[in-house]
Protein backbone atom coordinates (compact mmCIF):
# COMPACT_ATOMS: atom_id res chain seq x y z
CA UNK A 1 0.00 0.00 0.00
CA UNK A 2 1.17 3.50 -0.78
CA UNK A 3 0.47 5.96 2.04
CA UNK A 4 -1.18 9.32 1.38
CA UNK A 5 2.07 11.07 2.17
CA UNK A 6 4.10 9.03 -0.32
CA UNK A 7 1.39 9.42 -2.95
CA UNK A 8 1.65 13.21 -2.59
CA UNK A 9 5.44 13.08 -2.88
CA UNK A 10 5.29 10.93 -6.03
CA UNK A 11 2.71 13.28 -7.58
CA UNK A 12 4.93 16.23 -6.80
CA UNK A 13 7.93 14.59 -8.47
CA UNK A 14 6.34 13.56 -11.76
CA UNK A 15 3.28 15.80 -11.93
CA UNK A 16 -0.25 14.71 -10.88
CA UNK A 17 -1.12 13.82 -14.49
CA UNK A 18 1.62 11.16 -14.44
CA UNK A 19 0.42 9.40 -11.30
CA UNK A 20 -2.57 7.07 -11.52
CA UNK A 21 -4.00 4.94 -8.73
CA UNK A 22 -7.55 4.65 -10.05
CA UNK A 23 -8.96 1.13 -10.34
CA UNK A 24 -9.18 1.41 -14.14
CA UNK A 25 -5.62 2.71 -14.44
CA UNK A 26 -4.21 -0.02 -12.22
CA UNK A 27 -6.21 -2.76 -13.96
CA UNK A 28 -4.64 -1.93 -17.34
CA UNK A 29 -1.17 -2.61 -15.89
CA UNK A 30 -2.14 -5.66 -13.84
CA UNK A 31 -1.19 -8.01 -16.68
CA UNK A 32 1.00 -8.19 -19.76
CA UNK A 33 1.14 -10.34 -22.90
CA UNK A 34 1.64 -13.51 -20.85
CA UNK A 35 -1.58 -15.44 -20.24
CA UNK A 36 -2.45 -16.82 -16.80
CA UNK A 37 -0.82 -14.07 -14.71
CA UNK A 38 -2.49 -11.02 -13.20
CA UNK A 39 -1.84 -8.88 -10.10
CA UNK A 40 -2.85 -5.32 -9.27
CA UNK A 41 -0.20 -2.63 -8.79
CA UNK A 42 -0.84 0.09 -6.20
CA UNK A 43 -0.15 2.87 -8.68
CA UNK A 44 1.15 3.61 -12.17
CA UNK A 45 3.81 6.31 -12.51
CA UNK A 46 5.22 7.84 -15.70
CA UNK A 47 8.39 9.84 -14.95
CA UNK A 48 9.59 12.38 -17.51
CA UNK A 49 13.33 12.03 -17.03
CA UNK A 50 16.18 10.33 -15.19
CA UNK A 51 16.13 12.86 -12.35
CA UNK A 52 12.49 12.04 -11.58
CA UNK A 53 13.29 8.31 -11.67
CA UNK A 54 16.10 8.88 -9.17
CA UNK A 55 13.75 10.66 -6.77
CA UNK A 56 11.05 8.00 -7.15
CA UNK A 57 13.53 5.17 -6.57
CA UNK A 58 14.92 6.78 -3.42
CA UNK A 59 11.43 7.02 -1.93
CA UNK A 60 10.54 3.46 -2.91
CA UNK A 61 13.81 2.12 -1.52
CA UNK A 62 13.32 3.91 1.79
CA UNK A 63 9.79 2.50 2.13
CA UNK A 64 10.42 -0.88 0.46
CA UNK A 65 7.85 -0.25 -2.27
CA UNK A 66 8.28 -2.55 -5.29
CA UNK A 67 8.98 -0.95 -8.69
CA UNK A 68 8.05 -2.80 -11.88
CA UNK A 69 9.68 -1.12 -14.91
CA UNK A 70 7.48 -1.59 -17.96
CA UNK A 71 8.01 -0.87 -21.67
CA UNK A 72 5.08 -2.07 -23.81
CA UNK A 73 4.28 -5.11 -21.67
CA UNK A 74 4.70 -7.43 -24.66
CA UNK A 75 6.95 -9.87 -22.80
CA UNK A 76 5.79 -13.47 -22.64
CA UNK A 77 7.08 -14.49 -19.18
CA UNK A 78 4.89 -12.31 -16.92
CA UNK A 79 7.96 -10.10 -16.52
CA UNK A 80 5.89 -6.97 -15.90
CA UNK A 81 3.11 -8.54 -13.85
CA UNK A 82 3.23 -6.69 -10.50
CA UNK A 83 3.06 -9.84 -8.37
CA UNK A 84 4.17 -7.98 -5.24
CA UNK A 85 2.13 -4.82 -5.87
CA UNK A 86 3.98 -1.50 -5.73
CA UNK A 87 4.31 0.90 -8.65
CA UNK A 88 4.50 0.19 -12.36
CA UNK A 89 7.02 2.57 -13.92
CA UNK A 90 6.26 3.61 -17.50
CA UNK A 91 8.69 5.13 -20.03
CA UNK A 92 6.16 6.71 -22.37
CA UNK A 93 7.75 10.16 -21.90
CA UNK A 94 11.27 8.80 -22.32
CA UNK A 95 10.95 7.69 -25.94
CA UNK A 96 13.44 9.85 -27.84
CA UNK A 97 16.19 8.90 -30.24
CA UNK A 98 18.96 11.11 -28.82
CA UNK A 99 21.68 10.67 -31.44
CA UNK A 100 22.64 8.70 -34.54
CA UNK A 101 26.45 8.83 -34.71
CA UNK A 102 27.54 8.04 -38.28
CA UNK A 103 31.26 8.18 -37.43
CA UNK A 104 31.13 5.68 -34.60
CA UNK A 105 28.16 3.76 -36.05
CA UNK A 106 26.01 4.03 -32.94
CA UNK A 107 22.54 5.13 -31.95
CA UNK A 108 21.74 6.48 -28.48
CA UNK A 109 18.15 6.22 -27.27
CA UNK A 110 15.90 6.56 -24.27
CA UNK A 111 14.39 3.26 -23.07
CA UNK A 112 10.83 3.93 -24.20
CA UNK A 113 11.61 4.29 -27.92
CA UNK A 114 9.69 1.73 -30.00
CA UNK A 115 12.09 -0.74 -31.66
CA UNK A 116 10.73 -0.33 -35.20
CA UNK A 117 10.80 3.49 -34.96
CA UNK A 118 14.50 3.30 -34.16
CA UNK A 119 15.16 0.72 -36.89
CA UNK A 120 13.45 2.98 -39.46
CA UNK A 121 15.39 6.05 -38.28
CA UNK A 122 18.78 4.36 -38.66
CA UNK A 123 17.81 2.74 -41.98
CA UNK A 124 17.00 6.20 -43.33
CA UNK A 125 20.73 6.88 -42.92
CA UNK A 126 21.79 3.66 -44.65
CA UNK A 127 22.57 1.96 -41.32
CA UNK A 128 21.31 -1.33 -39.95
CA UNK A 129 20.22 -2.45 -36.46
CA UNK A 130 19.76 -6.22 -36.90
CA UNK A 131 17.83 -7.42 -33.78
CA UNK A 132 14.23 -7.65 -35.01
CA UNK A 133 11.85 -9.26 -32.51
CA UNK A 134 8.56 -10.02 -34.22
CA UNK A 135 6.96 -7.63 -31.73
CA UNK A 136 9.17 -4.74 -32.92
CA UNK A 137 6.16 -2.63 -33.98
CA UNK A 138 5.18 -2.36 -30.30
CA UNK A 139 8.15 -3.41 -28.15
CA UNK A 140 10.54 -0.86 -26.67
CA UNK A 141 14.33 -0.86 -26.63
CA UNK A 142 14.24 -0.89 -22.79
CA UNK A 143 12.18 -4.10 -22.92
CA UNK A 144 14.38 -5.62 -25.67
CA UNK A 145 17.53 -4.99 -23.63
CA UNK A 146 16.03 -6.32 -20.41
CA UNK A 147 14.84 -9.52 -22.09
CA UNK A 148 17.87 -9.73 -24.40
CA UNK A 149 15.41 -10.26 -27.22
CA UNK A 150 16.17 -12.05 -30.46
CA UNK A 151 14.52 -12.03 -33.85
CA UNK A 152 14.45 -13.47 -37.34
CA UNK A 153 17.96 -12.21 -38.12
CA UNK A 154 19.55 -13.68 -35.00
CA UNK A 155 21.29 -16.58 -36.72
CA UNK A 156 23.71 -14.39 -38.67
CA UNK A 157 23.69 -11.20 -36.61
CA UNK A 158 23.11 -12.27 -33.01
CA UNK A 159 20.65 -10.87 -30.48
CA UNK A 160 20.12 -7.58 -28.63
CA UNK A 161 23.07 -8.27 -26.29
CA UNK A 162 25.47 -8.18 -29.24
CA UNK A 163 24.53 -4.56 -30.03
CA UNK A 164 24.38 -2.93 -26.57
CA UNK A 165 27.64 -1.08 -25.95
CA UNK A 166 26.77 1.49 -23.29
CA UNK A 167 24.05 1.91 -20.70
CA UNK A 168 22.91 4.46 -18.18
CA UNK A 169 20.77 3.17 -15.33
CA UNK A 170 19.38 4.15 -11.95
CA UNK A 171 20.30 1.68 -9.20
CA UNK A 172 17.99 0.65 -6.36
CA UNK A 173 19.62 3.22 -4.03
CA UNK A 174 18.92 6.01 -6.52
CA UNK A 175 22.51 6.35 -7.75
CA UNK A 176 23.16 6.54 -11.48
CA UNK A 177 25.60 4.14 -13.15
CA UNK A 178 27.10 4.48 -16.65
CA UNK A 179 28.59 1.40 -18.26
CA UNK A 180 30.59 0.90 -21.47
CA UNK A 181 30.92 3.58 -24.13
CA UNK A 182 31.14 4.17 -27.88
CA UNK A 183 34.10 1.85 -27.91
CA UNK A 184 35.09 -1.06 -30.12
CA UNK A 185 37.35 -2.27 -27.30
CA UNK A 186 36.93 -1.87 -23.54
CA UNK A 187 38.12 -4.27 -20.85
CA UNK A 188 38.03 -1.93 -17.88
CA UNK A 189 36.56 -3.96 -15.02
CA UNK A 190 33.68 -6.43 -14.99
CA UNK A 191 31.37 -6.23 -18.01
CA UNK A 192 28.50 -4.45 -16.28
CA UNK A 193 26.78 -3.71 -19.59
CA UNK A 194 26.34 -7.45 -20.21
CA UNK A 195 25.22 -7.97 -16.61
CA UNK A 196 22.37 -5.50 -17.08
CA UNK A 197 21.33 -6.89 -20.48
CA UNK A 198 18.72 -9.57 -19.84
CA UNK A 199 18.37 -8.62 -16.17
CA UNK A 200 14.58 -8.26 -16.57
CA UNK A 201 14.31 -5.05 -14.57
CA UNK A 202 15.61 -6.78 -11.44
CA UNK A 203 19.00 -5.03 -11.13
CA UNK A 204 18.53 -1.43 -12.30
CA UNK A 205 16.24 0.93 -14.17
CA UNK A 206 17.57 1.68 -17.61
CA UNK A 207 17.45 5.36 -18.60
CA UNK A 208 19.62 5.47 -21.74
CA UNK A 209 21.27 3.00 -24.13
CA UNK A 210 23.86 3.25 -26.87
CA UNK A 211 23.58 0.55 -29.51
CA UNK A 212 26.00 -0.57 -32.18
CA UNK A 213 24.96 -0.26 -35.84
CA UNK A 214 26.34 -1.93 -38.96
CA UNK A 215 26.23 -0.85 -42.62
CA UNK A 216 23.05 -1.83 -44.45
CA UNK A 217 23.58 -5.09 -46.41
CA UNK A 218 23.78 -4.54 -50.19
CA UNK A 219 21.02 -6.97 -51.13
CA UNK A 220 18.97 -9.93 -49.87
CA UNK A 221 17.00 -12.91 -51.18
CA UNK A 222 14.25 -14.95 -49.55
CA UNK A 223 13.04 -18.50 -50.21
CA UNK A 224 10.72 -21.19 -48.91
CA UNK A 225 11.57 -24.91 -48.77
CA UNK A 226 8.54 -27.21 -48.50
CA UNK A 227 8.52 -30.60 -46.72
CA UNK A 228 6.20 -33.52 -46.15
CA UNK A 229 8.59 -34.92 -43.57
CA UNK A 230 9.11 -32.78 -40.46
CA UNK A 231 12.28 -34.57 -39.41
CA UNK A 232 13.85 -34.03 -42.84
CA UNK A 233 12.91 -30.37 -42.60
CA UNK A 234 14.57 -30.04 -39.20
CA UNK A 235 17.59 -32.01 -40.38
CA UNK A 236 18.05 -29.54 -43.26
CA UNK A 237 18.73 -26.80 -40.70
CA UNK A 238 21.77 -28.65 -39.37
CA UNK A 239 22.90 -29.55 -42.90
CA UNK A 240 22.86 -25.92 -44.10
CA UNK A 241 25.05 -24.83 -41.19
CA UNK A 242 27.29 -27.90 -41.54
CA UNK A 243 27.88 -26.74 -45.14
CA UNK A 244 29.34 -23.55 -43.62
CA UNK A 245 26.54 -21.28 -44.79
CA UNK A 246 25.06 -18.90 -42.22
CA UNK A 247 21.81 -17.46 -43.60
CA UNK A 248 20.37 -14.30 -42.08
CA UNK A 249 17.12 -16.12 -41.35
CA UNK A 250 16.33 -19.82 -41.03
CA UNK A 251 12.81 -20.21 -39.66
CA UNK A 252 10.68 -23.31 -39.20
CA UNK A 253 6.87 -23.40 -39.41
CA UNK A 254 4.82 -26.57 -39.01
CA UNK A 255 1.51 -27.21 -40.80
CA UNK A 256 -0.87 -25.96 -38.06
CA UNK A 257 1.13 -22.71 -37.87
CA UNK A 258 1.22 -22.38 -41.67
CA UNK A 259 -2.56 -22.79 -41.87
CA UNK A 260 -3.15 -20.20 -39.14
CA UNK A 261 -0.73 -17.72 -40.70
CA UNK A 262 -2.17 -18.14 -44.21
CA UNK A 263 -5.69 -17.70 -42.88
CA UNK A 264 -4.51 -14.47 -41.24
CA UNK A 265 -2.09 -13.04 -43.84
CA UNK A 266 -3.61 -14.49 -47.06
CA UNK A 267 -0.41 -14.38 -49.14
CA UNK A 268 -0.63 -17.84 -50.72
CA UNK A 269 1.51 -19.81 -48.29
CA UNK A 270 1.52 -23.56 -48.97
CA UNK A 271 -0.76 -25.22 -46.44
CA UNK A 272 -0.74 -28.74 -47.89
CA UNK A 273 2.77 -29.56 -46.64
CA UNK A 274 3.82 -30.72 -43.17
CA UNK A 275 6.42 -27.97 -42.66
CA UNK A 276 8.40 -25.21 -44.36
CA UNK A 277 11.70 -23.47 -43.85
CA UNK A 278 11.72 -19.73 -44.49
CA UNK A 279 15.24 -18.78 -45.45
CA UNK A 280 16.82 -15.40 -46.15
CA UNK A 281 20.37 -14.47 -47.04
CA UNK A 282 21.79 -10.97 -47.30
CA UNK A 283 25.11 -9.45 -48.41
CA UNK A 284 26.84 -8.70 -51.72
CA UNK A 285 24.77 -9.87 -54.71
CA UNK A 286 27.10 -12.62 -55.92
CA UNK A 287 27.41 -14.11 -52.40
CA UNK A 288 23.63 -14.06 -51.92
CA UNK A 289 23.05 -15.74 -55.32
CA UNK A 290 25.64 -18.43 -54.61
CA UNK A 291 24.36 -19.14 -51.08
CA UNK A 292 20.69 -19.30 -52.12
CA UNK A 293 21.50 -21.78 -54.90
CA UNK A 294 23.58 -23.93 -52.58
CA UNK A 295 20.88 -23.83 -49.87
CA UNK A 296 18.26 -24.89 -52.45
CA UNK A 297 20.44 -27.88 -53.38
CA UNK A 298 20.82 -28.87 -49.71
CA UNK A 299 17.05 -28.62 -49.18
CA UNK A 300 16.33 -30.82 -52.23
CA UNK A 301 18.94 -33.37 -51.13
CA UNK A 302 17.10 -33.53 -47.77
CA UNK A 303 13.79 -34.34 -49.57
CA UNK A 304 12.20 -30.90 -49.83
CA UNK A 305 9.20 -31.40 -52.12
CA UNK A 306 9.59 -27.89 -53.52
CA UNK A 307 11.84 -24.86 -53.23
CA UNK A 308 10.37 -21.43 -54.03
CA UNK A 309 12.52 -18.29 -54.29
CA UNK A 310 10.63 -15.01 -53.78
CA UNK A 311 10.53 -13.22 -57.14
CA UNK A 312 10.24 -9.68 -55.84
CA UNK A 313 11.23 -7.61 -52.81
CA UNK A 314 7.51 -7.20 -52.04
CA UNK A 315 6.91 -10.96 -52.01
CA UNK A 316 9.99 -11.47 -49.83
CA UNK A 317 8.79 -8.82 -47.37
CA UNK A 318 5.30 -10.39 -47.33
CA UNK A 319 6.81 -13.77 -46.38
CA UNK A 320 8.87 -12.29 -43.53
CA UNK A 321 5.92 -10.22 -42.29
CA UNK A 322 3.68 -13.28 -42.41
CA UNK A 323 6.16 -15.22 -40.25
CA UNK A 324 6.21 -12.34 -37.78
CA UNK A 325 2.45 -12.66 -37.38
CA UNK A 326 2.65 -16.34 -36.40
CA UNK A 327 1.87 -15.81 -32.72
CA UNK A 328 -0.98 -13.37 -33.39
CA UNK A 329 -2.40 -15.71 -36.06
CA UNK A 330 -2.35 -18.73 -33.74
CA UNK A 331 -3.78 -16.67 -30.88
CA UNK A 332 -7.00 -16.15 -32.88
CA UNK A 333 -7.83 -19.85 -32.77
CA UNK A 334 -8.43 -20.47 -29.05
CA UNK A 335 -8.97 -18.29 -25.97
CA UNK A 336 -5.57 -19.04 -24.40
CA UNK A 337 -2.25 -19.15 -26.27
CA UNK A 338 0.80 -20.32 -24.34
CA UNK A 339 4.01 -19.91 -26.26
CA UNK A 340 7.38 -20.99 -24.93
CA UNK A 341 10.90 -20.75 -26.28
CA UNK A 342 12.86 -23.82 -25.26
CA UNK A 343 16.17 -23.78 -27.12
CA UNK A 344 18.62 -26.53 -28.05
CA UNK A 345 21.94 -26.71 -29.89
CA UNK A 346 20.94 -26.50 -33.55
CA UNK A 347 22.32 -30.01 -34.18
CA UNK A 348 19.52 -31.27 -31.88
CA UNK A 349 16.64 -29.43 -33.54
CA UNK A 350 15.18 -32.52 -35.27
CA UNK A 351 15.09 -34.46 -31.96
CA UNK A 352 13.43 -31.51 -30.23
CA UNK A 353 10.70 -31.17 -32.88
CA UNK A 354 9.93 -34.90 -32.61
CA UNK A 355 9.88 -34.69 -28.78
CA UNK A 356 7.46 -31.73 -28.78
CA UNK A 357 5.04 -33.64 -31.03
CA UNK A 358 5.25 -36.75 -28.82
CA UNK A 359 4.67 -34.69 -25.66
CA UNK A 360 1.66 -32.95 -27.27
CA UNK A 361 0.18 -36.35 -28.14
CA UNK A 362 0.89 -37.80 -24.68
CA UNK A 363 -1.05 -34.98 -23.00
CA UNK A 364 -3.75 -34.71 -25.67
CA UNK A 365 -2.87 -31.08 -26.46
CA UNK A 366 -2.91 -28.91 -29.55
CA UNK A 367 0.70 -27.68 -29.81
CA UNK A 368 1.89 -26.02 -33.03
CA UNK A 369 5.58 -25.29 -33.46
CA UNK A 370 7.42 -22.54 -35.26
CA UNK A 371 10.53 -20.61 -34.51
CA UNK A 372 14.09 -19.62 -35.14
CA UNK A 373 15.28 -23.08 -36.17
CA UNK A 374 18.72 -21.82 -37.14
CA UNK A 375 19.21 -20.67 -33.55
CA UNK A 376 17.83 -23.94 -32.17
CA UNK A 377 15.11 -21.71 -30.70
CA UNK A 378 11.65 -23.21 -31.13
CA UNK A 379 8.29 -21.77 -30.10
CA UNK A 380 6.01 -24.66 -29.19
CA UNK A 381 2.65 -22.88 -28.96
CA UNK A 382 -0.22 -24.49 -27.10
CA UNK A 383 -3.75 -23.46 -27.98
CA UNK A 384 -5.92 -24.03 -24.95
CA UNK A 385 -8.74 -22.61 -22.88
CA UNK A 386 -7.91 -21.23 -19.45
CA UNK A 387 -11.45 -22.10 -18.26
CA UNK A 388 -10.68 -25.82 -18.71
CA UNK A 389 -8.81 -26.66 -15.49
CA UNK A 390 -7.93 -30.18 -16.54
CA UNK A 391 -6.50 -28.98 -19.85
CA UNK A 392 -4.42 -26.27 -18.13
CA UNK A 393 -2.92 -28.84 -15.77
CA UNK A 394 -1.92 -30.94 -18.78
CA UNK A 395 -0.44 -27.83 -20.43
CA UNK A 396 1.75 -27.20 -17.39
CA UNK A 397 2.96 -30.80 -17.29
CA UNK A 398 3.64 -30.80 -21.04
CA UNK A 399 5.73 -27.62 -20.92
CA UNK A 400 7.69 -28.89 -17.91
CA UNK A 401 8.55 -31.96 -20.02
CA UNK A 402 9.46 -29.79 -23.00
CA UNK A 403 11.88 -27.75 -20.83
CA UNK A 404 13.28 -30.95 -19.37
CA UNK A 405 13.87 -32.38 -22.83
CA UNK A 406 15.58 -29.17 -23.95
CA UNK A 407 17.96 -29.33 -20.96
CA UNK A 408 18.61 -33.03 -21.67
CA UNK A 409 19.64 -32.12 -25.22
CA UNK A 410 22.10 -29.52 -23.91
CA UNK A 411 19.67 -26.62 -24.30
CA UNK A 412 17.93 -24.06 -22.13
CA UNK A 413 14.47 -23.19 -20.79
CA UNK A 414 14.36 -19.84 -22.61
CA UNK A 415 16.27 -18.61 -25.65
CA UNK A 416 14.89 -15.07 -25.82
CA UNK A 417 11.69 -14.50 -23.84
CA UNK A 418 13.24 -14.39 -20.38
CA UNK A 419 12.43 -16.09 -17.08
CA UNK A 420 10.04 -13.66 -15.38
CA UNK A 421 7.48 -15.37 -13.19
CA UNK A 422 6.51 -18.01 -15.74
CA UNK A 423 9.83 -19.85 -15.91
CA UNK A 424 11.28 -19.03 -12.49
CA UNK A 425 10.45 -22.52 -11.15
CA UNK A 426 12.61 -24.09 -13.86
CA UNK A 427 15.66 -21.80 -13.75
CA UNK A 428 17.56 -24.04 -11.38
CA UNK A 429 17.34 -26.86 -13.94
CA UNK A 430 19.50 -24.74 -16.19
CA UNK A 431 21.81 -22.97 -13.71
CA UNK A 432 22.11 -25.48 -10.88
CA UNK A 433 22.11 -24.48 -7.19
CA UNK A 434 25.44 -22.66 -7.43
CA UNK A 435 24.30 -20.65 -10.43
CA UNK A 436 21.19 -19.54 -8.55
CA UNK A 437 23.30 -18.61 -5.48
CA UNK A 438 25.61 -16.46 -7.63
CA UNK A 439 22.60 -14.70 -9.17
CA UNK A 440 21.10 -14.12 -5.72
CA UNK A 441 24.39 -12.68 -4.44
CA UNK A 442 24.41 -10.17 -7.32
CA UNK A 443 20.76 -9.30 -6.75
CA UNK A 444 21.26 -8.81 -2.99
CA UNK A 445 24.34 -6.63 -3.53
CA UNK A 446 22.54 -4.31 -5.97
CA UNK A 447 19.05 -4.38 -4.52
CA UNK A 448 19.22 -5.37 -0.82
CA UNK A 449 15.62 -4.28 -0.17
CA UNK A 450 14.32 -6.33 -3.14
CA UNK A 451 12.37 -3.44 -4.62
CA UNK A 452 13.28 -3.92 -8.30
CA UNK A 453 10.78 -6.15 -10.07
CA UNK A 454 10.38 -8.61 -7.17
CA UNK A 455 9.07 -12.12 -7.81
CA UNK A 456 10.86 -12.37 -11.18
CA UNK A 457 13.61 -14.82 -12.15
CA UNK A 458 13.84 -16.39 -8.69
CA UNK A 459 11.28 -19.01 -7.69
CA UNK A 460 9.75 -18.54 -4.25
CA UNK A 461 11.25 -21.80 -3.12
CA UNK A 462 14.40 -22.85 -4.88
CA UNK A 463 13.94 -25.94 -7.06
CA UNK A 464 10.15 -25.92 -6.50
CA UNK A 465 9.67 -28.12 -9.53
CA UNK A 466 11.58 -31.39 -9.38
CA UNK A 467 12.84 -32.85 -12.64
CA UNK A 468 11.37 -36.25 -13.36
CA UNK A 469 13.71 -39.20 -14.12
C1 LIG B 1 3.33 -11.04 -30.86
C2 LIG B 1 4.63 -11.10 -30.12
C3 LIG B 1 5.79 -11.46 -30.79
C4 LIG B 1 7.01 -11.52 -30.10
N1 LIG B 1 8.13 -11.84 -30.79
C5 LIG B 1 9.33 -11.89 -30.14
C6 LIG B 1 10.52 -12.26 -30.85
O1 LIG B 1 10.52 -12.50 -32.05
N2 LIG B 1 11.67 -12.31 -30.15
C7 LIG B 1 11.73 -12.03 -28.81
O2 LIG B 1 12.81 -12.11 -28.22
N3 LIG B 1 10.61 -11.69 -28.12
C8 LIG B 1 9.43 -11.61 -28.74
N4 LIG B 1 8.29 -11.27 -28.05
C9 LIG B 1 8.38 -10.95 -26.61
C10 LIG B 1 8.51 -9.43 -26.28
O3 LIG B 1 7.99 -8.63 -27.30
C11 LIG B 1 9.97 -9.05 -25.99
O4 LIG B 1 10.36 -9.66 -24.78
C12 LIG B 1 10.20 -7.54 -25.89
O5 LIG B 1 11.57 -7.28 -25.77
C13 LIG B 1 9.48 -6.87 -24.73
O6 LIG B 1 9.53 -5.47 -24.93
P1 LIG B 1 8.53 -4.52 -24.13
O7 LIG B 1 8.86 -3.12 -24.45
O8 LIG B 1 7.14 -4.94 -24.37
O9 LIG B 1 8.98 -4.82 -22.64
P2 LIG B 1 8.08 -5.23 -21.39
O10 LIG B 1 7.33 -6.46 -21.69
O11 LIG B 1 7.34 -4.06 -20.91
O12 LIG B 1 9.24 -5.55 -20.34
C14 LIG B 1 10.12 -6.62 -20.52
C15 LIG B 1 11.12 -6.66 -19.35
O13 LIG B 1 11.93 -5.52 -19.40
C16 LIG B 1 11.87 -4.78 -18.19
N5 LIG B 1 12.02 -3.37 -18.54
C17 LIG B 1 11.37 -2.70 -19.52
N6 LIG B 1 11.86 -1.45 -19.60
C18 LIG B 1 12.81 -1.33 -18.66
C19 LIG B 1 13.69 -0.29 -18.24
N7 LIG B 1 13.70 0.90 -18.83
N8 LIG B 1 14.55 -0.53 -17.22
C20 LIG B 1 14.58 -1.73 -16.61
N9 LIG B 1 13.78 -2.75 -16.96
C21 LIG B 1 12.92 -2.55 -17.98
C22 LIG B 1 10.55 -5.17 -17.56
O14 LIG B 1 10.55 -5.02 -16.16
C23 LIG B 1 10.44 -6.64 -17.99
O15 LIG B 1 11.17 -7.45 -17.10
C24 LIG B 1 7.05 -11.23 -28.70
C25 LIG B 1 5.87 -10.87 -28.03
C26 LIG B 1 4.67 -10.82 -28.72
C27 LIG B 1 3.45 -10.42 -27.96
Any overview of this molecule?
The protein has 469 residues and is α+β, with helices and mostly antiparallel strands. The protein folds into 5 domains: 4-90, Uridine Diphospho-n-acetylenolpyruvylglucosamine Reductase, domain 2 (2-Layer Sandwich); 97-215, Uridine Diphospho-n-acetylenolpyruvylglucosamine Reductase, domain 3 (2-Layer Sandwich); 219-323, Alpha-Beta Plaits (2-Layer Sandwich), CATH 3.30.70.2190; 329-408, Alpha-Beta Plaits, CATH 3.30.70.2740; 424-463. The longest helix is centred in the C-terminal third of the chain and has 20 residues, at 389-408. The chain has helices at residues 4-14, 23-28, 50-63, 115-123, 141-147, 154-157, 192-196, 230-242, 255-265, 285-301, 313-324, 326-331, 349-362, 389-408, 427-446, and strands at residues 19-20, 43-45, 67-70, 87-90, 97-101, 106-109, 127-128, 164-170, 176-180, 205-212, 214-215, 219-227, 249-254, 275-283, 306-309, 336-339, 367-372, 377-384. A 7-stranded antiparallel beta sheet has the order 15-12-14-13-17-18-16, sandwiched between helices.
What tags apply to this protein structure?
469 residues; alpha+beta; Uridine Diphospho-n-acetylenolpyruvylglucosamine Reductase, domain 2; Uridine Diphospho-n-acetylenolpyruvylglucosamine Reductase, domain 3; Alpha-Beta Plaits; 5 domains; seven-stranded antiparallel β-sheet; five-stranded antiparallel β-sheet; 15 helices; 18 strands; globular; binds flavin-adenine dinucleotide
Amino acid sequence: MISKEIKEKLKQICGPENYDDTNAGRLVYSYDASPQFQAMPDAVVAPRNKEEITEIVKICNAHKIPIVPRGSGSNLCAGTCPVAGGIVLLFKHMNKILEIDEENLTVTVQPGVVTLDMIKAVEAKGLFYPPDPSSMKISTIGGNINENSGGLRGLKYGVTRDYVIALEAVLANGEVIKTGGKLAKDVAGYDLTRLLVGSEGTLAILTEATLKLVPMPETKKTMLALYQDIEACAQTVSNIIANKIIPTTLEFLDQPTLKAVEDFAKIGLPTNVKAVLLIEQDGPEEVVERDIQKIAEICRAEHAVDVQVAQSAEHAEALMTARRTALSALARLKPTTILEDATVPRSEIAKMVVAINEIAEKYGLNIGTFGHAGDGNLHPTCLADIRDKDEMERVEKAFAEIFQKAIELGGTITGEHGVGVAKAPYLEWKLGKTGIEVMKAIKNALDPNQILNPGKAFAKESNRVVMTN
